[in-house]
Design brief:
Layout: H1 2-23, E1 26-30, H2 38-54, E2 59-63, H3 71-80, E3 85-86, H4 111-132, E4 136-140, E5 144-150, E6 165-168, H5 172-181, E7 184-187, H6 193-199, E8 204-208, H7 209-214, E9 223-226, E10 231-232, E11 235-238, H8 247-280, E12 286-289, H9 292-298, H10 300-309, H11 313-322
Parallel strand pairs: 1-2, 1-3, 6-7, 6-8, 9-12
Antiparallel strand pairs: 3-11, 4-11, 5-8, 5-9, 5-10
Helix pairs in contact: 2-8, 10-11
Length: about 325
């Protein structure tokens, strides 16, 4: 009798232990953003909302600051199924050519325009192309409007970039664009940028204000030039492990990623205003407005090359620009 009772107790403990283990299924969500960055803020807000709905089914755990690798490394891990979700930006254009659309200078006018591009171009046309190469895009959030910092001179016109060693992210079109402007662009992982600027290995870099401030670049740069040359979305991407998750968990993650889209845009707009003021108050850095018309004029060859090289590229450009008109 005692043996039977002991066996029952043991069996119950095993079941309870298995249940607890199942309750602790971890969904790894990686990104390169530092604490205080928009990538960190939006991913944590997503985790909070998703976890409230998931209950004991699973738990989203965010790994920022390149803890799980740089963007390129994490994209590989998605394919292997060793990471569940990633929040990359520019690098996606290296895997799915049509995403180079967001490398076109001055394509996106404002966040309302971006929302129309997202709903009318990204999801119906570009997302299926990403799925064909193994990347499932659950949501389109924001990295932001990109500005240039450097230690040489204020950047007002493209010719001011002549000879400047500029760190750029790993995406073919950003390199082409800055070469066309006269800079000397070098792709480098985000985690390496601060030291490259501090040591003078790079003269400057370009990023949204949220990445500039959270990366402390303003502490080792003399000039912030408000070029707003490119708007980069960020993408919530799932890979090989996603289909192994229960259908209910998949639905919660997908629904929450979509729910976060307008939230991310609002968070981004608020953060831009706040951080510009903070950078203005940073000793040793001066801020200037760029001549955007001069940059737009110098950008035509990039549009021409994209239209020529990417299948359907001209159609994507034309449709995106048309959506820039109010009421589109």
């Amino acid at each position: 009798m005692r043996l039977t009772k002991a066996l029952l107790t043991f069996a119950f403990a095993v079941v309870l232990s298995a249940g607890t283990a199942a309750a602790q299924t971890e969904i790894k969500f990686g990104h390169v953003g530092k604490p205080g960055s928009l990538l960190e803020m939006t991913s944590q807000e997503f985790a909070k909302r998703a976890n409230a709905k998931l209950g004991d089914k699973a738990k989203v755990v965010v790994y920022g600051s390149s803890q799980l690798g740089g963007d390129s490394e994490m994209m590989k891990k998605l394919k292997l199924g060793t990471i569940d979700l990633v929040l990359p930006s520019t690098v996606v254009s290296s895997y799915v050519p049509s995403f180079g659309l967001f490398e076109m200078p001055y394509l996106v006018r404002d966040r309302d325009h971006m929302a129309r591009i997202r709903d009318q171009i990204v999801f119906p046309t570009m997302v299926p192309q990403a799925e064909k190469v193994g990347y499932r895009i659950l949501g389109v959030w924001e990295n932001g409007f990109r500005q240039i910092t450097n230690n040489k001179r204020p950047i007002v016109k493209p010719e001011d970039l002549q000879g400047i060693k500029l760190r750029v992210p790993k995406g073919v079109w950003r390199v082409k664009m800055f070469k066309a402007y006269g800079a000397n662009p070098t792709p480098l992982g985000f985690s390496e940028v601060f030291v490259a600027l501090q040591t003078g290995a790079m003269d400057g870099q370009e990023n949204p204000l949220a990445q500039i401030y959270s990366g402390h670049f303003q502490e080792v740069q003399k000039y912030l030039s408000m070029t707003g040359h490119v708007y980069t979305p960020s993408y919530v991407i799932a890979g090989a492990s996603f289909n192994r998750l229960p259908a209910g968990v998949q639905k919660i993650l997908s629904d929450t990623a979509i729910e976060m889209q307008p939230v991310a845009l609002k968070m981004a707009a608020d953060l831009d205003k706040e951080l510009l003021e903070k950078i203005k108050n940073t000793p040793g850095i001066s801020i200037n407005e760029a001549d955007k018309d001069a940059f737009i004029k110098a950008s035509k060859p990039i549009y021409d090359e994209f239209a020529k090289e990417v299948p359907g590229g001209q159609e994507l450009i034309d449709k995106a620009l048309a959506l820039g008109h109010k009421g589109s």
